[in-house]
Design a protein that fits this description.
four-stranded antiparallel beta sheet, mainly beta, single chain
C-alpha cells in the first residue's frame, strides 16, 4: 500500500492591490492591501518588508496584517514612486518575495506667504506693502485678495508671485 502525503507548496503569486495614497497623508494611511495565491487551500500567510540593496523605501512603510501603511513624510515633489520588497510566508514556512512600486498622488500644497520686511502705518495716511508668496506645486496660479482689509484701495499690482496693495488706515 502506498500512502501519499500532501507536501507544502510555495505561494504562486503575491499581489498588492493599491489604494489612493496622496502626499502629506497622515501616518498609517493605506497604501495597499496584500493577497497571496497558494495552491494549499486554507494556508494562512504572514507579510513582512524584506531588506534589499535597492529597496531603500521600505522604511517609509509598515505592514499591519495584510495592509501596507505609510509612514510620513511622503512628498510627491521629492519622489512620486516608492519601491518596497515584501515577503509572504505561509504557515509551513514557504516564502515568496516580490518587489512593488507604490505610486504617490500629488495633493495641492498651500502656498507660503513670506513675512513682510517692514511696514510703517500712520493713521489716515496711505501705506503700501509688498508681499511675496511661493507654492511648491509648480504651475499653480497664486491669487491675492484684500477682502477683509478695511480701507484698502483698489490699487493692486501683481507681478509674478509678488503682490502690492495700498491701504488707507483710519485712526
Amino acid at each position: 500500500m502506498v500512502t501519499l502525503q500532501n507536501a507544502n507548496d510555495a505561494s504562486s503569486q503575491l499581489v498588492l492591490q493599491p489604494a489612493t495614497l496622496l502626499e502629506n497623508a497622515p501616518a498609517d494611511s493605506l497604501a495597499g492591501t496584500l493577497t497571496t495565491s497558494d495552491q494549499d487551500l486554507g494556508d494562512s500567510h504572514r507579510y513582512t518588508l524584506v531588506a534589499a540593496t535597492r529597496d531603500s523605501d521600505n522604511a517609509r512603510f509598515r505592514i499591519d496584517g495584510n495592509r501596507v501603511l505609510s509612514q510620513p513624510p511622503l512628498d510627491d515633489e521629492a519622489s512620486s514612486q516608492y519601491q518596497v520588497r515584501i515577503e509572504t510566508r505561509d504557515q509551513a514556512g514557504a516564502t515568496l518575495v516580490q518587489t512593488f512600486v507604490i505610486v504617490l498622488g500629488n495633493a495641492n500644497d498651500s502656498p507660503v506667504l513670506a513675512a513682510m520686511l517692514s511696514l510703517v502705518v500712520q493713521p489716515n495716511r496711505p501705506c503700501t506693502t509688498t508681499l511675496h508668496a511661493t507654492d511648491q506645486d509648480l504651475g499653480d496660479r497664486l491669487v491675492f485678495s484684500t477682502d477683509g482689509l478695511p480701507g484698502c484701495t483698489s490699487r493692486i499690482k501683481v507681478i509674478e508671485q509678488r503682490f502690492s496693495v495700498g491701504c488707507l488706515m483710519a485712526s
